[in-house]
Design goal:
There is one protein chain. By secondary structure, the protein is an alpha/beta fold. 36% of the residues lie in helices and 19% in strands. The chain has seven helices and nine strands; from the N terminus they run H-H-E-H-E-E-H-E-E-H-E-H-E-E-H-E. The protein has helices at 9-26, 35-41, 54-63, 89-98, 115-119, 138-152, 188-195, and strands at residues 44-48, 67-72, 77-82, 102-104, 106-107, 127-131, 156-160, 176-179, 199-201. The strands form three sheets. Strands 5-6-7-8 form a four-stranded parallel beta sheet, with no helix packed on it. Strands 1-3-2 form a three-stranded mixed beta sheet. It has a two-stranded parallel sheet with strand order 4-9. Helix 6 (138-152) links the parallel strand 6 (127-131) and strand 7 (156-160). Helix 1 packs antiparallel against helix 7 (188-195). The protein is globular. It starts with 8 loop residues before the first helix and ends with a strand.
C-alpha cells in the first residue's frame, strides 16, 4: 500500500503562520510569490541544472531527478540545485487543490520542445496565468502562446506586465485580467489576508 503524508489542520495553520511571519520579517510582500527573490533575501543560491556542465548535469540527474540542496561551508551559504526542466509547481498546485484551494497555474515556456511539459495536464477551458516580464525572444513567446491557445483554450488569462498588441489577433482581450506587476509591493497589513484567501496564482 502506498504511504501518504498528511498533517493536521492545526499544524497546517501553524505552517501558514510561520510562512507569513517569515515574509514579514524579510519585508517581502509580492504576489504571486517570486521564489527567486525570496531565496535572494534568505541568501540561498539557486542553481539550475541546465547551467551545469554536461558531466555535472548527468551526475545531478543521477543523484536526484528533481533537485537537491547542500550547505557550502566555504562561503557559509545554502545552495539549491533544481531541475528547471521539470515543472514542480504542478505538484505543489495539485497539493493545494487537494486542500480545497483554487489554483491558477502561471504558464511558462521556451522553445517547441518545452510545450509538452508546459501545457500538459491542464484542464481545457480553465483560467491560466501568463507573464511577459523578462521576455526577450518575442517570436518564441508568440509561437508558444499560440500553441497554448490551441491546447488549453483558456476561458480567461491573468496577465502580468505588458500585453502585446498582436494578442488581440488570436484571443478576446476582454477575457484578459491585467494583474499588478510582481515587483509592486502589497501593503504588509494586507499580506497575511492574501495568504489565507482561497485563490493562489502559482
Amino acid at each position: 500500500m502506498k504511504k501518504t503524508c498528511s498533517i493536521t489542520s492545526e499544524r497546517y495553520e501553524q505552517i501558514k503562520e510561520i510562512v507569513a511571519d517569515m515574509y514579514e520579517d524579510l519585508g517581502y510582500a509580492e504576489i504571486p510569490v517570486n521564489v527567486f527573490e525570496l531565496c535572494h533575501k534568505l541568501n540561498i543560491k539557486l542553481i539550475r541544472y541546465s547551467s551545469l556542465s554536461e558531466d555535472c548535469y548527468e551526475y545531478s540527474r543521477q543523484f536526484s531527478d528533481d533537485g537537491f540542496n547542500l550547505f557550502n561551508v566555504d562561503i557559509f551559504q545554502y545552495q539549491i540545485y533544481y531541475n528547471d526542466r521539470m515543472l514542480l509547481n504542478r505538484l505543489i498546485a495539485s497539493y493545494w487543490q487537494d486542500l480545497g484551494r483554487s489554483v491558477i497555474i502561471t504558464l511558462s515556456w521556451a522553445r517547441k520542445e518545452t510545450y509538452n511539459t508546459a501545457f500538459s495536464n491542464i484542464e481545457k477551458g480553465c483560467i491560466v496565468g501568463i507573464s511577459t516580464e523578462g521576455v526577450s525572444d518575442w517570436e518564441c513567446f508568440e509561437k508558444g502562446f499560440l500553441e497554448m491557445l490551441e491546447r488549453i483554450e483558456p476561458s480567461k488569462i491573468c496577465w502580468y506586465d505588458r500585453v502585446p498588441e498582436w494578442v488581440s489577433n488570436y484571443y478576446d482581450t476582454e477575457n484578459i485580467i491585467i494583474m499588478k506587476k510582481r515587483h509592486k509591493a502589497v501593503k504588509e497589513r494586507e499580506f497575511k489576508k492574501i495568504l489565507e484567501t482561497q485563490l493562489f496564482l502559482f
